[in-house]
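Quick one: co-fold with FE2/S2 (inorganic) cluster.
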Amino acid sequence: MSFRFLVPSEKVPVVDGRSLLFVEGKTIALFNIASVFYAFEDSCPHQGASMWSGKLEGQILQCCAHGLRFDLATGYLLHSTQMKLSTYLVEVQGEQVFIVLNRGEQYAAL
Ligand code: FES
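Sure, here it is.
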């Protein structure tokens, strides 16, 4: 079962900004790249480093720990499907931004 988390207005990143959210036990990074939002769990699939402070080039995010680069549009490691960020659907309704979470998956992880 999925549910939508309403991002508090002060946490909605401006264009080319990013924010970090704590939602029911998960740490979620939310990026705004050219007015498109990308949300993903703030854990690199390589060895779990935080991705939030990674270097961004377009929609490609580079992990600070070992330099792997991920395409935020798909979540996958660049030029590969071997690793993938845990991405979330983002919905925008007017001024409100929602992150869609899978509640069943969330509880399984606890
Ligand atoms: S932990 Fe991210 S590249 Fe190794």
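If it helps, The chain is about 5% helix and 45% strand.
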